[in-house]
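The records we work with from here on pair a chain with its fold. Here is one such record, which you should read through line by line:
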Amino acid sequence: MFEQMGTFDSAFQPTGQEAASSLPRRRKSLKSQIVFWLVNLVLVAPAIVVVYLTIVADGLRNLMSVFATKLSKLPIPGIGAMAGFDGFNRIDIAAVTAMILCVTVSYIWFRVFTELSGHGRLSRQSNGNPILVWLLVGIAAILVIGDALIFYAGMSNQAAGGWTGTPQSVCIGATVVYSVGLAFLGGYHADYHTSEEV
């Protein structure tokens, strides 16, 4: 009975031919690498960080008040010194959580498009474990949908704070554009990392 306990690890490791036939490493020219990283570091990353730190963090604060707790008030030795520095004294749990969510959702979209294009680890397994696949799909769906709902909550709160009332259809449209934009960015990164240099 106990000798079968070690077989669970095989769901996470490719076996047989899948382990031997790993994908070849794709090489890009130095120019395309520089352009790719400059576009991401100068244009894409700052825009996404601003959206997450303003709208998504605001949505987290409105959904649960604990996210509005300043980091300098946490019971961590030495962290109270942040209160003495301008800018750092305004960082709260919502900002940190929003940045973690930013990285997580961006990585999920990258992995989704990598798997859909046939270059992922799960798509290379001929005898893939359907329970593992459905578990990962469920986790990814919960995170992506939750991220969109948090964005919608932040957008609704900011729209309600102005002098003129903004219709909810604008907030819904902005949430759809936001989610599609993140998906497009994940597809762009997956395509860059899995395609051959032309």
User: Anything to note?
Assistant: The chain is about 65% helix and 0% strand. The mean pLDDT is 82. The CA atoms of residues 25 and 194 lie 9 Å apart.
